[in-house]
């Protein structure tokens, strides 16, 4: 008999509000710390066998990448 999957097993992506909050929190960090967040998320996104990375880890990596790219174009924010 087929097993019904547990809803807790499903990988749910972060909602738009959670991504915005993550982006806001990352923007408060220094470029060095955002780079560390990116590297950690990149490590979590590596494929291990057939297991797919978590959607939240990919969203974290993309958010950090976008922030680093934005800073590269404009320069990092000035600290007071």
Task: Give a description of the structure.
Helix 1 (16-27) crosses helix 3 (55-74). The relative contact order is 0.17. It contains 3 helices and no strands. By secondary structure, the protein is mainly alpha-helical. The model has no long low-confidence stretch (mean pLDDT 88). It is elongated, with a radius of gyration of 16 Å. The longest helix has 20 residues, at 55-74.
Write the layout of secondary structure elements.
Elements: H1 16-27, H2 31-44, H3 55-74
Helix and strand element order: HHH
Any low-confidence stretches, pLDDT <50, length ≥5? none
Distance between the termini: 64 Å
Radius of gyration: 16 Å
Q: Approximately what portion of the residues adopt beta-strand conformation?
A: under 5%
Number of helices: 3
The tally of beta strands, per DSSP, is: 0
Largest sheet report: none
The helix/strand class is mainly alpha
- The geometry reads as elongated
- Mean pLDDT, to the nearest integer, reads 88
Share of helix, binned: 55-70%
């Amino acid at each position: 008999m087929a097993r019904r999957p547990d809803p807790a097993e499903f990988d749910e992506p972060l909602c738009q509000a959670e991504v915005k909050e993550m982006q806001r929190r990352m923007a408060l960090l220094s470029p060095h710390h955002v780079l560390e967040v990116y590297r950690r998320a990149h490590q979590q996104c590596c494929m291990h066998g057939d297991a797919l990375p978590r959607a939240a880890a990919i969203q974290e990596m993309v958010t950090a990448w976008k922030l680093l790219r934005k800073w590269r174009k404009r320069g990092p924010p000035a600290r007071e």
